[in-house]
């Protein structure tokens, strides 16, 4: 055969490349198994880590292998994934030199509100709001005005620079600032020593995705990432300036406390504990009372009562409790201003750990030139008075200034431990962020859950693989063996390409591989079914295989390209796990084309050309579907009726019963909590509802549901989900701990609860999605489905040259999607597994669309072939002949895929059950709709209505063949 040598060379070279990429993963795994078997023998462990594997062209150490091994996602390895968003309001403030222009301030405030429900970038929304406010006020301001962007921070902007030019300049500067933030964050992660971290900018946004497999201390990671490292120095207002205000607040509480969610009996003056105050603060509050004090100070009533001297005052907490009061936090009154710009706002050039005269750990630092000048001015002005050193809104120290400090050197003391001081030095040394950063989405997967996911994923993978091997050899005999060999090579290539491309393997990625195996089976089924037809037509074995490959090629290419289109849509519109699924599926489809068509052809013809036979059936399967003929077109009205009923039921349920939306669509928090005994979800939910109350006393949404087994709960809540601070995360975890404490082991601590492992109960995974991210995910999900449908419609139109085929295909896909949505609406309160509408569900819908269109394309391809050859007098007969002749392929593919999905559904772990259930429904209805919806609608719109004597096998219609 032509090209045999080239295909063989490509296969060998690709195999060697993949082998080279996969050896480090194998070697690292082997050494780790030996290390585990060493049972803590340090000498043996050291020897194992230092030994090398000589590959001839290079030597591989454990450290080198570990660095090059395949990346595993959080769901397989455990770890932390954080989506950071750089505060673009801070960037705009900096670029406007903290202007107080009222138009600018109002535009920024409105942008903050609009951004919560917008998929546009912050800066684009700002420009829209600026234009609207500017017009409403009749201010006639230009963006290049000195009060806006025409200042020394943007020297390229002149008085005559147009608004469009200013917008371009500002966008470029913000993009550069986000790039700078990306580099700072990457440097910080390197200092933490995370293994195989993955740091990426999210294109078109001010977001940075950080994934750190193996890490589990979320608080430490988030604190390290969010800290801006921008030290600020402020004047401090002392107790005598603030006490009169506190007294008026105390009086207000006794009269109006209920309106702000505080008991009227609350004694603010008592909470402040002035008698214990030893620093330059204005209160020494018990940690348990800080939330109450915050609620009072942040209330609108408290804001309205502020006297002139406290109009811009910021009330900030100390970094940590003083050594003399370990249960209290100091509250400071920081003298602010209209734009809240610090008198000293300089970056640190160097920072190091040192010790003061009493041997306490401190951090010595040297400011940059700008900060040094500002520091000198501030200290000269405040000799004898306190100055606060703050970092990200926390007061580290507030000493009295003894003398002016001219050289920019200063010292931070904050009752540090050695580790805390090192963390601060690392953050300062990595450089400052150009603006504050907030965590808008985070996921934490415990290592024990990661290992369980690996076990479940590999078990489902092995079972699915075994099912496919047994079935295809049983059905196609010797030819099936070649299909299995091609499939094994295909999997080897997929793993090798994933590793060489530095892609991350996730649990949905494993599902993608299993579906790829099913796709490979589908490819072989199409080839072998066509080969069987040629053999039944009386052709010799060699010619039958040649014609089988030839006639199957169009259908294979069409099917693979439509599925590849779906994978591309998933990749471009999806995030996180969906992207991993799309990458694996995309690579698998391409490799399937090479292994199951090109390489399989080489292997089969190498055998046949030597005069050896190769069976394409077994005794039980030889004549299956051979003479099967069904009047599908005649029964289409019955199918229409069934589909209309199912569609109506689905739509009624959708509009009345609705869905259970996942937090990635609504925003919120999810926790999977494991216990050491059976737990009642209803009792746990009732206990948590009492604790998760908002500041105005209202209950937040809380749902507890059994997850996987009776010793595990999935708890969802929207409590504080809009608050991106680390403190909010800690507050929720504390309340979760308190609410579930009665079901936890008696001696479990909060820290143990926050990070469960195989030895104790607690949180095994957690996820938080902020409102802006949820809105983006939902919008992208809708766009993905629309884009997939539009792309498929256009592709079918181009390939089949008739809009009737496109209409039938898209109608069938719409039918499948509505049925799946209806099932999720009807059953989400009944099924014992997660049936949320979330990112995974969107991935499932798109996968079903890809697979369903693959079925449809096979039938349409046969219809097109019969139209060219005019194999039937009537159009109905031609459609029936086409569908009946492809029944073997439709049954084999659908049956095999359903078996594979069922294996993953049963053995693949709790996280995949909802995803696989959608595929089970979708693949089944996809096969049905390809025959009874897509083909039937195409027929109804193609028929001419003219009657003629029926000469074909079909007797249900008399329309003349509409192929003229």
Q: What does this 3D model show about the protein?
A:
- With 964 residues, the protein is an alpha+beta fold.
- α26 packs parallel to α28 (839-869) and α30 runs antiparallel to α31.
How does the SSE layout of this entry go?
Layout: H1 4-37, H2 42-50, E1 52-54, E2 59-61, H3 62-68, E3 71-72, H4 74-77, E4 79-86, H5 88-95, H6 102-115, H7 122-137, H8 163-192, E5 198-202, E6 207-213, H9 218-226, E7 231-237, H10 239-256, H11 268-272, E8 283-286, H12 290-298, H13 300-304, E9 314-318, E10 328-334, E11 348-355, E12 361-367, H14 369-381, E13 387-391, E14 394-397, E15 409-412, H15 418-429, E16 437-445, H16 447-476, H17 478-500, E17 504-505, H18 507-536, H19 541-573, H20 577-608, H21 636-656, H22 663-666, E18 668-674, H23 681-691, E19 702-707, E20 709-717, H24 726-740, H25 750-754, E21 762-769, H26 771-800, H27 803-827, H28 839-869, H29 875-885, H30 887-907, H31 913-942
Parallel strand pairs: 3-17, 9-14
Antiparallel strand pairs: 1-2, 4-6, 4-16, 5-6, 7-10, 7-13, 8-10, 9-10, 11-12, 12-15, 13-14, 16-21, 18-20, 18-21, 19-20
């Amino acid at each position: 055969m032509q090209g045999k040598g080239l295909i063989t060379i490509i296969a060998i070279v690709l195999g060697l490349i993949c082998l080279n990429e996969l050896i480090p993963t194998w070697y690292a795994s082997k050494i780790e198994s030996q290390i585990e078997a060493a049972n803590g023998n340090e000498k043996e462990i050291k020897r194992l880590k230092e030994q090398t594997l000589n590959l001839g062209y290079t030597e591989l150490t454990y450290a080198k292998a570990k660095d090059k091994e395949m990346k595993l996602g959080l769901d397989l390895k455990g770890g932390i994934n954080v989506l950071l968003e750089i505060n673009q309001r801070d960037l705009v403030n900096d670029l406007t030199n903290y202007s107080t222009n009222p138009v600018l301030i109002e535009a920024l405030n409105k942008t903050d509100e609009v951004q919560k429900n917008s998929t546009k970038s912050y800066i684009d929304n700002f420009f829209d709001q600026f234009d609207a406010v500017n017009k409403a006020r009749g201010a006639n301001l230009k963006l290049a005005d000195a009060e806006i962007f025409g200042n020394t921070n943007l020297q390229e902007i002149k008085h005559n620079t147009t608004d469009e030019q200013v917008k371009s300049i500002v966008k470029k500067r913000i993009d550069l600032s986000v790039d700078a933030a990306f580099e700072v964050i990457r440097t910080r992660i390197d200092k933490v020593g995370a293994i195989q971290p993955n740091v990426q900018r999210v294109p078109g946004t001010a977001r940075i995705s950080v994934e750190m497999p193996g890490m589990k201390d979320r608080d430490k990671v988030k604190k390290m990432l969010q800290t801006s490292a921008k030290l600020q120095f402020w004047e401090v207002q002392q107790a005598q300036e603030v006490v009169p205000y506190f007294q008026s607040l105390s009086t207000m509480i006794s009269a109006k406390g209920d309106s702000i969610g505080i008991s009227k009996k609350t004694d603010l003056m008592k909470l402040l504990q002035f008698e214990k105050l030893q620093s330059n603060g204005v209160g020494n509050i018990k940690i348990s009372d800080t939330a109450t004090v915050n609620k009072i100070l942040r209330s609108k009533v408290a804001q309205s009562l502020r006297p002139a001297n406290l109009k811009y005052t910021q009330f900030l907490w100390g970094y940590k409790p003083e050594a003399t009061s370990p249960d209290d936090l100091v509250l400071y009154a920081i003298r602010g201003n209209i734009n809240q710009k610090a008198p000293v706002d300089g970056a640190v050039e160097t920072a190091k750990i040192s010790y003061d005269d009493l041997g306490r750990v401190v951090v010595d630092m040297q400011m940059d030139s700008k900060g040094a000048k500002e520091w000198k001015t501030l200290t000269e002005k405040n000799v004898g008075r306190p100055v606060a050193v703050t970092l990200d809104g926390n007061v580290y120290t507030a000493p009295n200034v003894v003398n002016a400090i001219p050289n920019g050197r200063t010292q931070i003391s904050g009752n540090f431990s050695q580790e805390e001081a090192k963390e601060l030095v690392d953050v300062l040394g990595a450089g400052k962020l150009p603006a504050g950063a907030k965590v808008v989405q985070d996921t934490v997967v415990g290592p024990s859950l990661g290992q369980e996911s690996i076990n479940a994923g590999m078990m489902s993978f092995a079972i699915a693989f075994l099912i496919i091997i047994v079935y295809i050899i049983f059905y196609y005999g010797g030819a099936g063996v070649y299909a299995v060999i091609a499939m094994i090579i295909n999997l080897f290539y997929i793993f090798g390409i994933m590793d060489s491309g530095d892609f991350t393997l996730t649990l949905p990625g494993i599902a993608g591989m299993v579906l790829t195996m099913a796709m490979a089976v589908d490819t072989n089924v199409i080839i072998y079914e066509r080969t069987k037809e040629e053999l039944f037509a009386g052709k010799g074995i060699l010619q039958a295989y040649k014609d089988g490959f030839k006639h199957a090629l169009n259908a294979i290419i069409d099917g693979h390209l439509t599925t590849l289109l779906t994978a591309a849509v998933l990749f471009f519109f999806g995030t996180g796990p969906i992207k991993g699924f799309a990458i694996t599926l995309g690579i698998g489809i391409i490799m399937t084309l090479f292994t199951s068509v090109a390489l399989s052809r080489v292997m089969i013809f190498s055998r046949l050309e030597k005069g050896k036979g190769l069976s394409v059936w077994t005794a039980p399967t030889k004549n299956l579907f051979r003479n099967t003929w069904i009047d599908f077109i005649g029964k289409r009205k019955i199918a229409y009726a069934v589909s209309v009923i199912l569609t109506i039921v689905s739509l009624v349920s959708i509009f009345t019963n609705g869905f259970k939306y996942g937090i990635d669509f609504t925003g919120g928090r999810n926790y999977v909590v494991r216990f050491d005994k059976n737990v009642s979800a209803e009792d746990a939910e009732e206990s948590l509802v009492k604790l998760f109350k908002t500041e105005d006393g209202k209950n937040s949404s809380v749902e507890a549901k059994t997850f996987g087994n009776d010793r595990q709960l999935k708890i969802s809540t929207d409590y504080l989900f809009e608050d991106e601070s680390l403190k909010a995360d800690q507050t929720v975890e504390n309340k979760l701990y308190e609410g579930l404490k009665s079901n936890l082991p008696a001696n479990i601590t909060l820290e143990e609860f926050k990070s469960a492992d195989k030895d104790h109960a607690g949180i095994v995974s957690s996820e938080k999605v902020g409102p802006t991210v949820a809105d983006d995910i939902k919008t992208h999900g809708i766009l993905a489905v629309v884009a997939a449908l539009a792309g498929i419609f256009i592709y079918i139109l181009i390939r089949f040259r008739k809009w009737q085929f496109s209409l039938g295909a898209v109608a069938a896909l719409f039918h499948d999607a509505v049925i799946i949505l209806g099932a999720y609406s009807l059953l989400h309160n009944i099924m014992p597994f997660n049936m949320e509408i979330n990112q995974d569900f969107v991935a499932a819908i798109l996968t079903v669309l890809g697979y369903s269109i693959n079925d449809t394309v096979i039938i349409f391809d046969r219809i097109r072939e019969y139209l060219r050859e005019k194999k039937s007098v009537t159009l109905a007969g031609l459609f029936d002949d086409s569908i009946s002749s492809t029944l073997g392929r439709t049954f084999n593919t659908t049956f095999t895929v359903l078996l594979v999905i069922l294996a993953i559904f049963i053995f693949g772990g709790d996280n995949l059950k909802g995803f696989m259930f959608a595929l089970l429904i979708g693949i089944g209805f996809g096969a049905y709709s390809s025959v009874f919806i897509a083909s039937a609608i195409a027929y109804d719109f193609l028929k001419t209505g003219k009657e003629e004597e029926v000469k074909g096998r079909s007797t249900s219609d008399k329309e003349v063949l509409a192929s003229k």
